[in-house]
Specification:
Radius of gyration: 23 Å
Order of helices and strands: HHEHHEHHEHHEHH
Low-confidence stretches: 1-71
Helix content: 25-40%
Mean pLDDT: 79
Number of strands: 4
Bound molecules: inosine-5'-diphosphate, magnesium ion
Number of helices: 10
Shape: globular
Strand order of the largest sheet: 2-3-1-4
Amino acid sequence: MEVVCGSGVCVSSLPRSSTITRSTVPQFRVSYQYLTPFPSQSHLFSYHPPPYAKTLRARTTTKPAIFLPHLVASLQQVDQTYIMVKPDGVQRGLVGEIISRFEKKGFKLTGLKLFQCSKELAEEHYKDLNQKSFFPKLIDYITSGPVVCMAWEGVGVVASARKLIGATDPLQAEPGTIRGDLAVQTGRNVIHGSDSPENGKREIALWFKEGELCDWTPVQAPWLRE
Ligand code: IDP
Ligand code: MG
């Protein structure tokens, strides 16, 4: 772990056995406490010095914490996202692998079904893309066989799912992501994930009927979040 300190010295560059004191790193202003998961939303936006900072304050200038966009998923807001294994993912036997990645991450599955979608539903789902040249082929692709529709819930689930899924073009998607590991072409990129919490709600309402979603509490909940 690399920690940027006021002096330019990194904690990771110190020997493991080092005891970090003001004499070891004279301008040291960042502690491990700032780098652990944020316990509350306010930590993303404001600076809360640790108790011992009082003793250092006289001689150091504390800076506000930097807002880190990639930590937005730490916000306490519970979101829903619509995830769909596209027909190529179903035909290639990737359903279990894909569900497993979301389960292992720790999100909650609230809806799941195998479904043959109509042209109208596919067009409504992708209505924002209806002016694109690839739109007709996209609709043919999505309606070419059954899809697996899923609703997932969790804090930061929309942004996190997009990260798990990877870039739209599988050749640009990072290894370790679903598209990066399991696909080679944009037109056969195996999975859909909502791109905003608003679209998550919209798409779940579009693909699931009333009574098809399940409100439940996984027993692992206290082992995932303090
Ligand atoms: P996303 O699925 O990563 O959110 P979008 O831009 O929303 O990407 O596009 C929706 C889907 O349309 C893509 O997942 C892909 O299946 C298809 N698509 C996007 N761009 C192209 C393209 O240039 N050629 C063919 N299909 C495309
Ligand atoms: Mg999209």
